[in-house]
Structures are given as C-alpha cells and as structure tokens.
Amino acid sequence: MTVQSELRAQLDTEGWLALPSDLVAHFGLEPGVQVRVDKRTSGLHLRQPVTYLGKVYIEPTNACNLDCRTCIRNVWDEALGRMTRETFAHIVEGLRAFSPSPTVFFGGFGEPLAHSDIVEMVTQVKALGAPVELITNGTLLTESLSRQLIKAGVDVLWVSLDGATPESYADVRLGAALPEVVDNVVGFRSARPPAQCPTPEIGIAFVAMKRNVADLPAVLRLGGRLGASRFMVSNVLPYTAEMCDEVL
Questions:
Q1: Closest-CA residue to 21 (of 10, 34, 32)
Q2: Of 191, 207, 109, which Cα lies nearest the Cα of 157?
Q3: Torsion-angle region of 138 (φ positive above 0: left; ψ -120 to 50: alpha; else: beta)
Q4: Is the CB of residue 83 less than 8 Å from the CB of residue 106?
Q5: In whole angstroms, what is the distance from residue 208 CA to residue 248 CA?
Q6: pLDDT tens digit string along 111-155?
Q7: Alpha-carbon distance 236 to 242, whole Å?
Q8: Residues pairing with 10 in the sheet
Q9: Strand positions, DSSP E, 26-93
Q10: Confidence class of residue 17 from pLDDT cuts 50, 70 and 90?
Q11: For residue 3, is pLDDT > 50?
C-alpha cells in the first residue's frame, strides 16, 4: 500500500485557492492554466487540466507470436512491421518537451517483447524520468529478459491472462500454454529485488467475454498467487462476427 502525504491548499484574501508547490509541479501547472472544479457531495474535485499529458502509448511492433481469437489481425491485411530506431528517437525527443514526463505505456496490437530493442527503448524512456508500463502475453518473458527489463526500470509489467485453466486459456490465446506463462511470471517476480513493496509491480489484464467470464474469480486468485498488485478487466472488442456473440 502506498501512503501519500497529506496535501493542503490555502485560500487567499481574494478567494483564490493556492495549491501546494509539489502538486503544481507534478501536474505541470503554469500561471493562467484553467482547472475544472467539480462540486460533489464529499467535497470539491479538481480535474487534471487539458494541458496535462498523463500517458503516451507506444507500439514498438504490430507483430505477435500468437494467434488469439480476440485479435484485430484476424480481419486486417496491414503489413507487419517494427518501429525503427530513428522513429523512436523522434518520440523520445518529443517527450523531452513535457514536464513532468507522462507515463509511457508500451503495448498495442503487437507483442512488445518481440521487438529486439525493447529493453533499450525502456532504458531511454526511463532516462527522461518517465514511469514505464509494458503489457505482454508472457510467452517471451525469459529469465534473461526479465532481469534486463527490471534493470532498465520498468515500473509495471502487465501480463494478459484470459483464462485460469490451460484449456480455457488456450481456447482464447491460440499458440500459448498457460503453465509456461505462469512459470515465466514466477521467474519475473523472483528476479525482482527484495522489498516490502517489490518493483516492478505486476498487473494482470483480463479480456472478458461470454466464453471465459466464469474464469474471472479464478484469474484474480491466480494473479494474487503470482504477486500481482493491479488488475485490469475489459469487455472484448468484437473485430469478427464470432466475437460479436461474445460481448458481455
């Protein structure tokens, strides 16, 4: 559990609310920026200003080593490719303009770990001071790669688990075996430096549909055993007629 220090704002003589300097710095607030305030029964809620860039999504590659039922690749004819070093360098340069640095999330339709430069990408983004999250199907998460990602500074590793048994998992993620993925995540967890709140955090991502939603409680329990501290559940996006019948 993360314990946050108490923040106090102060009302000046003209009725303006002055925010603590660390909060102003965290959200990159500048004089003249308008912040929306919502009135709620529990008090006032300050929304993030539209000038605040919270998260940037980077897709290193749209290629993947699996053939999942839920994937958009079942219906598209886009060429597969990998982000070049030149393109990534332009992205990193663009991120330098933001203060504070937004969270960078490596993911998309492809498997980020299939890109040979993924560790270097994480390293460069972390050098900017940006929090880094990455989502993976877990099949390529070898012991060596786990240690490299941890050393590079990944803050959260999300692992896609759409079933709690080998049968239900393989029914969605064609080409993968649940026991191997679980072993890989266990290896990643064990490679983390010992601490009361170990980092990187492990998250479990579950795409819910009619064929697997009964597995959700067991997936949550499995995630707990794997040391997960975050869970993300989303309804399936139906790219095919078959998947339309699976929407919850």
A1: 10
A2: 191
A3: left
A4: no
A5: 8
A6: 999 999 999 999 999 999 999 999 999 999 999 999 999 999 999
A7: 11
A8: 18
A9: 37-40, 43-46, 55-58, 67-68
A10: confident
A11: no
Distance of CA 135 to the CA centre of its chain: 6
The owner of tokens 């460069």 is 124
The residues spanned by each domain of the chain are 10-46, 55-244
Q: Helices 85-95 and 118-127, interaxial angle, to 10°?
A: 20
Contact indicator for 234, 212 with CB cutoff of 8 Å: no
Which helix or strand (DSSP H or E) is residue 225 part of? helix 216-225
Does this model's pTM top 0.85? My answer is yes
Q: What is the pLDDT of residue 1?
A: 39
| Cα–Cα distance measured from residue 6 to residue 9, given in angstroms and rounded to the nearest whole number | 10
% the chain with pLDDT above 70 = 98
Looking at this protein, which amino acid is placed at residue 59? E
Please, are residues 212 and 168 in contact by the beta-carbon 8 Å criterion?
Answer: yes
E-assigned strand segments in 108-210: 132-136, 156-160, 173-174, 201-208
The residue count for the chain: 248
C-alpha 182/C-alpha 223 separation (Å) is: 9
CATH of domain 55-244: 3.20.20.70
